TrEMBL record:
HTH araC/xylS-type domain ranges (all copies): 210-291
A Pfam family this chain is assigned to: HTH_18
SMART domains per UniProt: HTH_ARAC (SM00342)
Listed Gene3D superfamilies: Homeodomain-like
Name of the protein in question: AraC-type DNA-binding protein
Molecular function terms, GO-annotated: DNA-binding transcription factor activity; sequence-specific DNA binding
InterPro entries referenced in this protein's UniProt entry, alphabetically: Homeodomain-like_sf, HTH_AraC
Taxon lineage: Bacteria, Pseudomonadati, Bacteroidota, Chitinophagia, Chitinophagales
C-alpha cells in the first residue's frame, strides 16, 4: 500500500523539524505553486490572515483570515492561495514532540485536531492579537540559543490549544461521570491508533464494538452506554464514520485497488466493502474515486 505523502513545504527548510521535532516561523507571501495534497508526518498549527482554500480530507474549506488553523497529520490536506498577500505565523511539530499524558489528551480532545471537525476557528481582532503574541514568542524562542526552547514551545502550543477551546468550546457537552468520560476517551484513542493505514500488509484489526470492548477489558454494553452518553452517538457509528473516512483517503490518495483497500479495512469480500461504503456515503467506491459524486 503506497500512500502519497508530501513532507515538504515550498520555501521552508525542514531540517530542524526532522532533527528537533519542531519548527516555528513567520509566514511569507505564498508562491505560485500550491501546497500539494497529501498526508504529512507532522502537526501544523498556524495563524493566517489571507484568502485561501484548504482541501482537508474530502472537504474543501474556504478561509479568509484572521484564522487559527490546525492540520492533523492523519488527514490529507492541500492549500490553494487566492491572494499574494498573506501574513501570519506557523508552528510545525511531530507527534513525538508534544508528549505527556495531559498534553496528549488535550491534543486529542481539541476541536482543531479531531478528524470529524473543521480544522479552523475564525478570530476577531482581539483574539487574533492575543494568539499572534503567543506565536511571536514561539518564533523568538525558536530563533534564540535558549537551551529549553523545546519545552517553551510546547507550553505555547498548549496555551493556544486551550485558548482555542475557550474561544470555541464544545457545543452541548454536559458534565458526565468520570468513568463514562474516561472509557470514551480510551475508545477514541484505540480507534485512532489504527490509522492511517499505510504499510503494505497492514490491516484493520478492530472493527466492531465487541473488539474495542475486549481491548479495553470492559463489557460491550458498558462501552456502548458510555460512548452514547458522552457523545450522543452509538459506538458503531463512530467506528463506521472513521472507517469510511480512511476509505475515502485511501481512494483519493493511493493507487491501491478497491480490493486492496477492502482487504486493508477488514472486509472479507470486496462486495461487502462496496455495499458498506455506498450505504454510508451514497456513492460506490469507484464512483467516489473518479469524482462522479
Amino acid at each position: 500500500m503506497a500512500v502519497k505523502r508530501n513532507t515538504a513545504i515550498p520555501g521552508i527548510d525542514m531540517t530542524d523539524l526532522t532533527i528537533k521535532g519542531f519548527k516555528a516561523h513567520v509566514l511569507t507571501n505564498p508562491r505560485d505553486l500550491p501546497v500539494s495534497l497529501g498526508r504529512r508526518d507532522f502537526y501544523k498549527m498556524g495563524l493566517v490572515n489571507g484568502d485561501m482554500s484548504i482541501t482537508y480530507g474530502d472537504r474543501v474549506i474556504e478561509m479568509n483570515g484572521p484564522v487559527l488553523f490546525f492540520v492533523n497529520p492523519k488527514v490529507p490536506h492541500g492549500v490553494i492561495h487566492r491572494s499574494r498577500e498573506r501574513t501570519g505565523y506557523a508552528c510545525l511539530f511531530t507527534p513525538a514532540f508534544f508528549i505527556g499524558r495531559e498534553r496528549t489528551q488535550l491534543l486529542n480532545n481539541s476541536p482543531l485536531v479531531r478528524t470529524s471537525d473543521a480544522p479552523h476557528i475564525a478570530l476577531n481582532n482581539e483574539q487574533a492579537e492575543f494568539i499572534a503574541g503567543i506565536f511571536k514568542k514561539m518564533v523568538s524562542v525558536y530563533d534564540s540559543d535558549y537551551r529549553q526552547k523545546g519545552e517553551m514551545i510546547s507550553n505555547c502550543i498548549e496555551l493556544i490549544l486551550r485558548e482555542a477551546l475557550r474561544i470555541q468550546p464544545p457545543q452541548n457537552v454536559p458534565e458526565f461521570k468520570k468513568g463514562a468520560t474516561r472509557i470514551t476517551h480510551l475508545f477514541f484513542d484505540l480507534l485512532e491508533r489504527q490509522f492511517p493505514l499505510e504499510r503494505s500488509g497492514q490491516a484493520l484489526k478492530l472493527r466492531a464494538p465487541q473488539d474495542f470492548a475486549a481491548g479495553l477489558a470492559v463489557h460491550v454494553n458498558y462501552l456502548n452506554r458510555a460512548v452514547k452518553e458522552v457523545t450522543g452517538k452509538p459506538t458503531s457509528v463512530h467506528i463506521a464514520d472513521r472507517i469510511v473516512a480512511e476509505a475515502k483517503a485511501l481512494l483519493l490518495h493511493t493507487d491501491c485497488s478497491i480490493a486492496e483497500i477492502a482487504d486493508a479495512l477488514g472486509f472479507e469480500y470486496t462486495t461487502y466493502f462496496n455495499n458498506y461504503f455506498k450505504r454510508i456515503t451514497g456513492a460506490a467506491p469507484n464512483s467516489f474515486r473518479k469524482g462522479k459524486v
